[in-house]
Amino acid sequence: MAATAASLAALPADAQQRYGRRDTILVSPEGYVLDYIPDDARVMRDSRGRTVYVDAWGDVIAIAEPADRRYARSERYNPRRDRYRPVTGYPDGDAGYFPPAPDDGYGYGDELTTGSVPELREALPGGIERQPLPDYSTGDDMAALPADGGTAADSEFVPGPTFDAAIAIGKKTSAEITALQVFLDREGFSPGVIDGKKGSNVVKAIEAWQKATGETLDPNDTDDILERLRLSGGMAFTTYEITAADAAGPYVAAIPDDYAEKAALPHLSYTSTVEMLAEKFHMDEAYLREINPGVDFTIPGTIVKVVDIGAAKTGKVAKILADKGRKQVLAYDEAGNLIAAYPASIGSADTPSPSGLVTVERVALNPGYTYNPKINFKQGNNDKVLTLQPGPNGPVGTVWIALSKPTYGIHGTPEPSKIGKTQSHGCIRLTNWDATELAKMTSPGVTVEFVD
Question: Does the UniProt entry include the keyword Signal (predicted)?
């Protein structure tokens, strides 16, 4: 079977269609129609049931796709087709259309290169239907960021809740810090990326956990932390076997900086198996490599060391506080109990988030993204509207919680290690897994209050 498929795939794209395969083309992970595939390619099925071709190392070479997804019958393949749309109906600076893409106001520059939550590759989380996002120019299902976050004069100071200070974390090993991070993550009080390092996100998570439980958590009492871990599901570390589906992807070789090149890709997926696994287990990618020295993550059957994050937090959120001073999102139930907290990047001095009350309008998973140079900053030589397809390397991650104030939302990020340490463009930016957990507990009508 593999030999037949490989010999068929070795023909040019036009030849593939003439040779009895009018409904199928072979597409590389980078989004290009292939003219050939190496003779040693093997045929597999990925987790989505698609036919994929992998090389001897387990790397995906090509994916079989229906031809009508790329071009109409009798139409020749044109990689630049449908990449641009003209800007009509909105003068420069009109706030009725958004979004700006991330720029230096986020602290990211053009370096958006990391991934997303595992739900992208699996079924959507239960309890949330994918809903169309509002796009104020075309009606497309595209997520967005605010075109104009306002000025400092627009913001009114609203004090946030107070927290008892956490006990200072002393000299601890990386494994001991990891155990603390895993415990907090399981409790729904996120420390951000799990990286075995103490920092502000860990301290904020401890303080929020103490506020919610009324207990005091001593981060230096390792025996207590290990006992709490045991009661919450087991020790911090576990093992994971890389599956054929993990190795198959789909992945892209790299995410380009230029937005026009991004727009040409069929999806903005993970760039590697290790990137996908790091987000699957809420870990820093460098830390995952560090605790697995010399491991090749691309080979199915490989056993790797990961953290055991346990089950996601559940509950029904009735109110969300976006605390700009703490750089933290706090989630409360109907009785006013604090049930979860997440580190966040919220607004900036140039484009602050609003103060006061808004509400959740809709929740969407795996959203696309629209870039409009007439409203946004100028990126490269791009002077037309660009439509970026969904994927974990999209500018807003894989979750968009739209708010009643136009152009504002709570969303994920392709750069989780920077959450809580940089600023955003007026929106509320969380790690993708935290945004997903919050989205599963949130519904339209939930109150969101920005406090200082």
Answer: no
How far is it, in rounded angstroms, from Cα 392 to Cα 398? 6
- Residues known to be catalytic: 411, 427
Phi, psi of 315 (to 5 degrees): 145, 180
- Alpha-carbon span 269 to 30, nearest angstrom: 10
- What would the two tokens of residue 358 be? 């808004």
154-209: per-residue pLDDT in tens? 456 778 899 999 999 999 999 999 999 999 999 999 999 999 999 999 999 999 99
Distance, first Cα to last Cα, the chain: 63
273, 399 contact by CB (below 8 A): no
Segments making up each domain of the chain, as ranges = 2-69, 84-452
State which amino acid sits at residue 2.
A
Output phi, psi for 78, to 5 deg.
-135, 105
DSSP-derived secondary structure for 300-322: TT-EEEEE---SPP-----EEEE
Question: Residue 299 corresponds to which amino acid?
Answer: I
Domain 84-452 has CATH 2.40.440.10: yes
Cβ within 8 Å of residue 410, ≥6 positions away: 320, 322, 329, 399, 400, 401, 403, 427, 428, 430, 435, 438, 448
Say what the pTM is: 0.67
* Partners of 320 in beta bridges: 331, 448
